[in-house]
Automatic annotation (TrEMBL):
Residues 246-499 form the ATP-grasp domain. InterPro entries: ATP-grasp, ATP_grasp_subdomain_1, Cya_phycin_syn, Cyanophycin_syn_N, Folylpolyglutamate_synth_CS, Mur-like_cat_sf, Mur_ligase_C, Mur_ligase_C_dom_sf. Keywords: ATP-binding, Ligase, Nucleotide-binding. GO terms for molecular function: cyanophycin synthetase activity (L-arginine-adding); cyanophycin synthetase activity (L-aspartate-adding). In the C-terminal section; belongs to the MurCDEF family. This is Cyanophycin synthetase. Homodimer. It catalyses: [L-4-(L-arginin-2-N-yl)aspartate](n) + L-aspartate + ATP = [L-4-(L-arginin-2-N-yl)aspartate](n)-L-aspartate + ADP + phosphate + H(+); [L-4-(L-arginin-2-N-yl)aspartate](n)-L-aspartate + L-arginine + ATP = [L-4-(L-arginin-2-N-yl)aspartate](n+1) + ADP + phosphate + H(+). Catalyzes the ATP-dependent polymerization of arginine and aspartate to multi-L-arginyl-poly-L-aspartic acid (cyanophycin; a water-insoluble reserve polymer). Transmembrane segments: none annotated.
Length: 912
């Protein structure tokens, strides 16, 4: 039991949950906080603490906390609450104040650790959340009485110390805001992500910027801002070549200004004089208004405009200047969805203040920020602004008259401080048609049409004006939050274009957890779905498969592997083995499953990461069925009390599987079946019994258990049980019984189909069984099969081991179980002792076997796995049964295949 020392607070460890987890379905950061001597000091015993904290972060007054009303958290502090709880709220408020709004958090005490608390809070950007957590602890610590300060372990959250970077609290908050602006999605991408989330479409961020995957597998769509996976690269190239764009539009009869491409200033002047003043110069392939100069009315002005443009492109366009207002027409999927009149950055004089002061006043508008972080962008003074003022006979110290409009930019881009007025309801139908056709001719699914018109309510064919540019990747900001007028919901039609008819972009996700049988059941389910015609992405402890191809080798039972499968563009269904380690480490690799299954709960990995009891283990495993979508199905083992109890929290329809069908069916399961519930059961009978499906009060016989090769003629009970679970999952998913039957009739335990799971080799005159039985429950199930096979064989020889991170009692139990079923035992070590000294695991297994009465002279200790395998093979005589429980599955299997039997049995003097 941990006892806190009389010391300041200390962070023991931190975890970032990226999917549903033990504490919540919301991605969260959790850190373990030891309050030390502050365990005896709730907030109402710290004079001035609450007032000082609220003065620093007044937004805390809006936190409802458990009272669910503004001021609730302040009330909690006044009544007295622990500092872990306070830190949770501060971490949330810091993120929100920095521009990344989050509200969900919780703080819970830790069992067997006095003064320790799990502090959890939501985040949007992972790095922002971690840095905010560190800063929250520092702020809370700084407000404590001097003798109680000195929080330790902050590096567990993040190495970056914003307070140490200077500027005090205000400087730290500004740094956190800058981090948000770098890590947060821009307004265009953010609007699309929010709309996708509203529609229930899964969202995955693929990089640190704005590359987003919407949906999973084969149904996914990708986007970066308003560039989508359907955006033609040729169309983007055309839009980037302004001269080509103008030529294509002109040939289609659309109104565009006349002009030409030039490479020298003198050529620009000649072209301007041919066209007639005023003219515009701009880079051939520029964007965001960079390098554009308007209203050029002399040769010298044209030369200056050319020099400005040529810094952005070697080729420069000189073209007629249309008169009128600057508009951006947004076309999505061939339809005009929004129109904004763009107003260049400017100030309006008051007859008292200088232009510099007026700019400062405009930039104080809370809607203005740096880049695209807010609705509007700050006006920055640069050479272009100074030149434009000089052209008007002014400078920054000039004081314009009251009401005088002073332009600061030629172009009306929001990125240079411009503003937007919504004009969607005003545009003339002719202008709508012109914009639609322009987007279609260029070939863009999402296009921003720059349109000059004296009056957008009238056709430009009457008033003059037309298209000056067609832009790929147009920003949505001006339409989402215009300076004046109605905001337009333009993310919705964009998502509708990518996912028509209410599509969610989801593929079936089947998640399987439990203590034993996960890998085999996962392979069975994937085999059935493959047989039904789907391309299946599968994760297991042996690797990742896409269809029939293993694309990654190694333990792939965690969330990272799940995400890899869900990103695969050919996958039509995902079958995911889901181990406890990944759930504890970062949660699930998906937001919700269509089918979730818990196969069983048995003693394994106990005593690790605070999973000390079977009930603790069940709580971790139940995360899978608690994350099933509303219309999905949770599949539970009716024969396992802890698994069956998950029915209370599992989501979706409940389906049970049980080895006790027919007359042996327990009362609770019978009630479930009689009520029309789904259950898959094994009914005992000759030849291994039968598998029967119950659904909607119908009894549907499926097949004999012995028809499944993996059951070894119905003797391998654990694989019958695995098959029951697989049938329940695939039937709930809509696979027909004939397809399920045909698939299972072709599912064997061959090494190629199911490596390390009941692989059998009969080529040496004796039978070899290779199975990854790595805990007492798994070995017990395997030994039940050994007992059934013994009448057909001579001696039974077993190679036994267990990972070193199991409890001593579990390791000894392996020896006790083995002692009852084998005539010879070969004990070995694992390559990674996981903290055990060499030989310790073998000796503990030996203790268990000897205590069960196993003879010492028939027990062999061989630390190396391959050497132990060789000894087992040499010990085996014709008709013997050899059981190998490997760590290196492929290495041991290769040893079995390469073995050449000796002419005579090995003598004990020859043993290693």
């Amino acid at each position: 039991m941990h006892i806190s020392q009389a010391a300041p607070m200390r962070v023991l460890h931190a975890v970032t949950y990226r999917g549903p987890h033990l504490f919540s379905h919301t991605p969260m950061i959790r850190f373990r906080l030891d309050l030390g001597s502050l365990e005896e000091r709730p907030t109402n015993t710290l004079p001035g603490f609450s007032d000082a904290l609220v003065a620093l972060l007044p937004g805390l007054q809006e936190h409802g906390c458990s009272y669910r009303t503004p001021g609730g958290f302040i009330r909690r502090m006044q009544e007295g609450t622990w500092l872990g709880h306070v830190t949770e709220h501060v971490a949330l408020e810091l993120q929100s104040r920095a521009g990344s709004r989050v509200t969900r958090g919780k703080t819970r005490s830790v069992k067997n650790c006095r003064g320790c608390y799990n502090v959890l809070y939501a985040y949007r950007e992972e790095e922002v959340g971690l840095v905010a957590g560190r800063l929250a602890l520092q702020i809370v610590d700084s407000l404590l009485p001097a003798g109680l300060r000195g929080v330790r372990g902050l590096e567990e959250l993040h190495e970056r110390d914003l307070l140490a970077e200077g500027g005090g609290f205000d400087g730290a908050l500004m740094a956190l805001s800058r981090l948000v602006s770098r890590r947060a999605l821009g307004p265009t991408t953010r609007s699309l992500v929010h709309e996708a989330e509203r529609r229930g479409i899964p969202v995955m961020r693929l990089d640190a910027l704005s590359l987003i995957q919407l949906g999973h597998g084969k149904k996914q769509q990708r986007l970066r801002a308003s560039i989508t996976g359907r955006t033609s690269s040729i169309a983007v190239e055309i839009a980037g070549d302004k001269d080509l764009t103008k030529s294509l539009l002109a040939e289609a009869g659309l109104p565009v200004p006349k002009g030409a491409v030039v490479r020298t200033a003198e050529a620009a002047v000649q072209e301007a004089e041919r066209l007639g003043y005023p003219v515009v110069t701009k880079p051939l392939d520029g964007n965001h208004g960079r390098g554009v100069t308007l209203d050029l009315r002399s040769a010298e002005a044209v030369r200056q405009g050319f020099e400005h443009a040529v810094t952005h492109s070697r080729r420069v366009i000189v073209e007629q200047q249309y008169s009128g207002h600057d508009h951006r027409i947004l076309v999505i999927g061939g339809e005009v969805r929004a129109v904004a009149q763009r107003v260049p950055a400017h100030v309006v004089g008051d007859g008292e203040h200088s232009i510099a002061t007026l700019i400062e006043e405009v930039n104080r508008d809370p809607r203005r920020g740096t880049g695209h972080e807010k609705t509007l962008t700050r006006i920055e003074v640069d050479d272009h602004v100074l030149a434009l003022l000089a052209k008007a006979g002014m400078d920054l110290e000039s004081v314009p008259e009251e009401g005088q409009w002073v332009a600061l930019r030629d172009t009306a881009n929001l990125s240079t401080g411009g503003t937007a007025i919504d004009r969607t309801d005003d545009i003339h139908p002719d202008n709508v048609t012109i914009a639609r056709r322009a987007a279609q001719i260029v070939g863009l699914d999402v296009a921003g049409i720059d349109f000059l018109a004296p009056d957008i309510r009238r056709s430009v064919r009457e008033t003059g004006g037309g298209i000056v540019e067609v832009n790929a990747a147009p920003g949505f900001r001006m339409h989402l939050e215009p300076f004046e007028g109605w905001a337009r919901d333009i993310a919705r039609p964009a998502i509708d274009m990518l996912f028509p008819d209410g599509e969610t972009g989801r593929i079936p996700i089947i998640a399987i957890t439990g203590t034993n049988g996960k890998s085999t059941t996962t392979r069975m389910v994937a085999h059935i779905l493959n047989h039904s015609g789907l391309c299946v992405g599968m994760t297991s402890t042996s690797g990742i498969w896409v269809g029939k191809d293993r694309v990654w080798e190694g333990d792939a039972s965690g969330p990272r592997s799940a995400r890899m499968v869900l990103r695969e563009p050919t996958v039509e269904a995902a079958v995911l083995e889901t181990a406890r380690g990944g759930i504890l480490r970062e949660g699930l690799g998906f937001d919700e499953a269509d089918i979730g299954a818990v196969l069983n709960i048995a003693a394994d990995h106990l005593g690790i990461k605070e999973v000390d009891t079977l009930e603790d283990l069940a709580a971790v495993k139940s995360v899978v069925v608690e994350s099933v979508r509303r219309g999905g199905c949770s599949v539970l083992n009716a024969d396992d009390p802890l698994t069956r109890a998950m029915e209370r929290h599992a989501r979706g329809r409940i389906a049970f599987f049980s080895m006790r069908g027919g007359t042996q069916m327990p009362g609770a399961l019978r009630e479930h079946v009689e009520a029309g519930g789904l259950a898959v059961v094994h009914e005992e009978g000759p030849g291994g019994g039968d598998i029967v499906v119950h659904n909607d009060r119908r009894r549907l016989p499926l097949m004999g258990a012995a028809e499944i090769p993996a059951t070894l003629d119905g003797m391998a009970g654990f694989n019958i049980q695995n098959a029951l679970a697989a049938v329940a999952m695939t039937y709930a998913r809509g696979v027909s019984l004939p397809v399920i039957r045909a698939a299972l009739q072709g599912f064997s335990t061959s090494f190629e189909q199911s490596p390390g799971r009941l692989n059998i080799h009969d080529g040496h005159g004796f039978r070899v069984i290779l199975d990854y039985a790595h805990n007492p429950a798994g070995l017990g199930a395997l030994c039940d099969l050994v007992a059934k096979l013994r009448p057909r064989h001579g001696r039974a020889i077993g190679m036994i081991s267990i990972p070193g991170d199991r409890r001593d009692e579990d390791i000894r139990e392996m020896g006790r179980i083995a002692a009852a079923h084998f005539d010879e035992l070969v004990l070995r070590e694992r390559p990674d002792g996981r903290g055990r000294v060499p030989g310790e695991v073998m000796n503990l297994i030996a203790e268990g076997a000897l205590a069960a009465g196993f003879p010492e002279d028939r027990m062999h200790r061989v630390p190396d796995e391959l050497a132990a395998t060789d000894l087992c093979l040499r010990l085996s005589s014709p008709d013997d049964l050899l059981v190998l429980t490997p760590t290196s599955v492929e290495g041991v299997w290769a040893r079995v295949l390469a073995f050449v039997p000796q002419p005579a049995p090995v003598r004990r003097s020859e043993m290693a």
